[in-house]
Amino acid sequence: MSETSVPVTTLASTSTSSTSSSPTSASSLKTRGRGARISLGALQIVLGLFYAFASALPKLIAHPSAAEAFDKLGWGSAGMYLIGTLELAGGLALLVPLLSSVAAVALSALMVGAFVVNVTVIHGPYVATPLILILPLALIAWARRGHTTELVRWVRRRA
Q: I need a labelling partner for 116 at 20 to 30 A (CA). Which of 6, 18, 53, 130 fits?
């Protein structure tokens, strides 16, 4: 036998050992997968509540700080209420499983706009905040992309 060839018995014992440990790895993968699903769900809840209460609510109740910022932009109260309504809708949609991926994409687009406005007009201390929020939104959009497929099927059946 040459030095570069592997004995058949070694290959057989390697494949046997990998299949014998597979129930253990399968259970650890299930546990890890369950933990990831729970973490992702918790992230969706936190972001949904953040957008609904911390971000949309000040705009919808015309808090002086929000009104001042939108006046500085020249968008006035109409722009403030529009953005607040979009953030509220997106935050609530993050909590609905079938809409979560689409909501994450829509809120990401809104955050791109917020970043551009922060950089070009406001020049405030929170320029990076929209970019930071895009990261977990992108994770949700990617992880829940199957929900988008279900949503498209549902809409097609209704049409």
A: 53
